[in-house]
Amino acid sequence: MNTTAFTIYDASAGSGKTYTLTKEYLKILFLAKNDDAYRKILAITFTNKAVEEMKTRIVSSLYQFSLDTTSDKAMELLKDVAFETKLSIATLKDKSKAIIKNIIHNYAAFDISTIDKFTHKVIRTFAQDLNLPPNFEVSLETDSLLQEAIDLVISKAGDDVNLTKLLIEFSKEKTDDDKNWDISAELLKVAQLITNENNSEEIKEMSDKSLDDFGVIKKKLQEEIKQLKAETSEDGKKIKHFIESNGASLSSFPKYFNDHLNNIESNQLKDSQKKYFSPDDIKVLKSAKDVAVIESIIDEIVSQLKSIYDKLGKISMYEAFLQNLNPLSLLNTIYQEFKQIQEEQNLVSISDFNKIIHNEIQNQPAPFIYERLGEKYRHYFIDEFQDTSVMQWQNLIPLIDNALSGQDDFGQQGTLMLVGDPKQAIYRWRGGKAEQFIDLAKEDEKHNPFSNKDKETLRLGTNYRSFSEVIQFNNSFFKQLADKFENPDYKNLYENLSHQEINSKIGGYVNLSFIEVPEDETEVEGFDSDNDTISVKDKFYLNQTLRTIEKCISNGFEYKDIVLLTRTKAPGIKLANFLTENSVPILSSETLLIQNATEVKLLIALLRYLKNPKDDESKAYFLYFIAKYLQSELEIHDFILAAKDKNSEELEAFLKTIGIEISFKNCKKKSLYEAVEILIATFLNEKVNTSYLQYFLDLVLEKDVKAQSSISDFLEYWDKIGYQKSIPSPEGTNAVRIMTIHKSKGLEFPVVIFPFAEENFSSKPKDKLWIPLEDANVDFPKALINNKKEVETYGNEAKTIFQIKNQEEVLDTINVLYVALTRAEEQLYVISNKLKTKKGDLVTNNLSYYFLEFLHNIGKYEQTKSEYEFGNSTRISFHKAHDGNHNQIGIVANKLNPKNIKIAQREALMWGTVQQDAINFGNILHEIMAFIQTKDDVDLAIQKATELGLITFSQREVFKETIQKIVNHPELNDYFEADIKVFNEQNIIKKATKTIKPDRVVVKGKQVFLLDYKTGEKHNKHKTQLEEYKLALEEMKYEVVKKVLIYIGESIEIVTL
Q1: Cα–Cα distances in Å, from 432 out to 43, 420, 428, 580, 855?
Q2: How far apart are CA 544 and CA 550, in angstroms?
């Protein structure tokens, strides 16, 4: 079977991507000579969930193949594999048994992992070569480390003169712009450039710039602006003079043109004002008598104006750069602190992983860190390639190139299989670019980075996920959106590569509905008239979403079949609150946050109270909990009133009266974990097994074990990061799921509802832009400026960069929309807004217009209609029985008191404590005897034992007396006399058997005397052991003259053998 070295699968949504990956993986396993081919395969995907799915799919397929009765679904795959490998089904079944057995015994070598995990493994393996501590920890909390670094930089204000000056200037600028004077949030935004690999090149270029260098750059920019302003003002005068000196009158032009020239002269011309780029733009008054003269000089006027506009563009660009220069000049200072924190805490931020490898392998023909790995892997699978960042891909190229350009011992060449869909590239902000996939999929060789140019691009054209109505709607809707692009690659993506074939699932339903919010509307059905925390428009959206959910339920769906997708988290929170109020069961990232659990709130309040007993807010919270759940005698308000002013001791006494015994003082003495356990046992005994509490306890234990955190440390961590933690989503719960579109990627749901489907494109938050500083007298490669329309006036290169960025933003918007609308299996609901201008026209610069324009183009749009249907809304799919039973782990009623645990040594279990003392004595004596060569060494050995802490000063005499008895014993003369060769506790290495170690061997010529110390009772095995030593020494051509065992206990007994 011929296989292409490099295969790219362009796999649109629902096109059987995982099936294809599994099939190709299995083909390599079955065609290999050995059963362990999986060891040479590295499969990389994007999320842990995808890793789990792929591993499960491969192992379960192999298991099904190995059974006599293979399931129908697995049989389909088996037949496909048999057809493509030309192997018989019987052969595949036999091989499956052997392969699965091999995988189970070597599961660690079954390498399917996320790209971050793989990078981590490489870095961990080569930590020493990369100058990293070998036991580093990975930090996922990059932003909190950056914030810590920023706080440290700000805290140095007052010590460092330049830094202080800069921070004050920055604060002033912020207050002058009517913004918050607190600069740390702004600094964090800029500091995130450090960790975002999209900016790595620019950051690298400015890494050697100091605060002083930035001061010089700032000065130069200000001088350039001053100079250019003076020149443009002069140029404005020159144009006027030029017109008049050629015999034309300024009064022959309209007033607004004269105002334009005056604004240029006085440096008052704004970016937004009309510009004159062609002779036709400049009008002449009908009453003018010098039309012919003006026509003869009009081209020159336009040329002079263009020259002025170029200078004005530069001024605007420099001013825009100056706005970002202060935070940018602090970037290196922040980065140094960021690195320092990581070094001190033995951390490596996950954001640095790719950069560490990238910096190491650049300019190396065969990167050394891949040398060992390179021989290990021969086949590479990369899933969700459109989400692989540019740097991650660059890091993988040398490793993959090594496999593709060579063959293994069996003459098999390496392979690479990439699977992805550029229409689902929605992670540009973390380095994943659709353009990377688009370029690789092109036929021309210049986009192939490998020395082996054997490449094939295949398209998976059928959608197996959705019903026909959903597929057909998406086909026509996204084809129409191709017109939104000027970039030919993007246009082609949606015009020619978004169409999908339907499968056997015929039917389905799509519903587009539009809310219409009357301008003067204030009261909305279902909401209190005084509820002004939610806007009127949002109330309309929420009501329409609820009606849609009710419609789905009446059509035969269950809550668990429905997912609500939102563009950002904010609408999701509104939906969660609203649906909960209306008794719709929901599951969302908000409901899974541990900080929202009542039990966790109570523990945090108690910990805050332990840290500071004067914290009245926390005190009131835990008193409210006790009043509501743990007592029934007093009303909640009365209970809080009775207890709120009591100090800790009085409060303990008061709580004792209602059966709650706790010592806050005792809690403070305990470790963090023990303190939390006491609080749980006291206040939450019945709820100890809730997922939220267990997860919180895990968090507490981690902080206690890893960082020995105090209560205060833990609360600081909680306020920074901990509060964002959430429990994993439980499977099988019958509830409507609410998630962001980004979270839903790779998932599928029977019913998808996409409410709040509107987005004002002009007010979207945009990334800052790096613009090259053309012919500026400033020693700086690129200017960092805010992304806004005026950038187009900053020069040709700035205009090009702005337009490219603009097209990328359009692509990202449409890609997010594509991911949202292709999650649906059977039914899709879009709830948008019929936005109108004041004149009554439809607003076009908004996501909602995409849907309205589509309806218009297919001839379905009606002015008065607000709901459009495609297909039949009755459920077709098979109704799966809901299994909502979860086995609960029972509460442990009797807790083990740690004080009752006694750690026993084996000897203590075997003998009584008197013997134990004797054994301890014997063991120490044994160690001291190892220091003794001859009779004269006794004092020296005792001295050494005291220094090493083996014996105390008071024990010296007892031990000395015993040792003297041994060395002067008449039967042991041969062992301790002078001028002998002694080997104390030296190993004897024997061939094919274990190493042995006699306590004392005395050598006189070819004669040997053997001595061994024992503690405890006599045993025959001691004699056997001595006999073993004797045989070993005889093998070494020595004659063993004497063998002695010395039993050391309460008394000393010598046994000569």
Answers
A1: 18, 12, 5, 36, 33
A2: 10
Query: Regarding beta strands 415-420 and 455-460, do their DSSP bridges make them parallel or antiparallel, or are they unpaired?
Result: unpaired
Those residues with Cβ within 8 angstroms of residue 917's Cβ, 6 or more apart along the chain or in another chain? none
For every residue of 956-1000, DSSP letters joined together read HHHHHHHHHHHHT-GGGHHHH-SS-EEEES--B--TTS--B--SE
CA 752 to CA 739: how far, in whole Å? 11
Quick: pLDDT tens for 1010-1028: 999 887 778 888 888 888 8
What residues form DSSP beta bridges with 563? 737, 752
Q: Assess contact for 639 and 631: CB atoms under 8 A.
A: yes
The H or E element containing residue 45 is strand 41-45
| Residue found under tokens 């070819």 | 1006
Question: 984: which strand partners?
Answer: 1000
Residues 826 and 466 sit within 8 Å (Cβ to Cβ): yes
Interval 551-603: pLDDT, tens = 999 999 999 999 999 998 889 988 988 898 888 999 887 778 888 888 899 99
pTM of the model: 0.79
| DSSP letter (8 states) at residue 727 | P
**Section 810-838 average pLDDT:** 93
Whose CA is closest to 882, among 546, 547, 557?
557
Give me 993's structure tokens: 């058997």
Residue that the structure tokens 């170690």 belong to:
997
Q: 512 has which bridge partners? A: 830, 868
pLDDT band of residue 521 (cuts 50, 70, 90) is: low
Q: Encoding tokens for residue 455?
A: 């490449």
* Alpha carbon of residue 285 to chain centroid: 65
Token output for 297? 């000089």
CA 524 to centroid of chain Cα atoms: 41
Amino acid making up residue 694: Q
Q: First vs last Cα of the chain: how many Å apart?
A: 75
Question: What totals of helices (H) and strands (E) does the chain contain, helices first?
Answer: 38, 22
Determine the Cα angle at 941 with ends 936 and 947, to 5°: 150
Question: Do residues 115 and 46 make contact, with C-beta atoms less than 8 angstroms apart?
Answer: yes
* Amino acid code (one letter) for 387: D
Instruction: State the DSSP code for 644.
Output: T
Find the farthest-apart pair of alpha carbons in the chain and give their distance in angstroms, rounded.
Answer: 142
Query: CB–CB of 115/47 below 8 Å?
Result: no
1043 forms bridges with which residues in the sheet? 1010
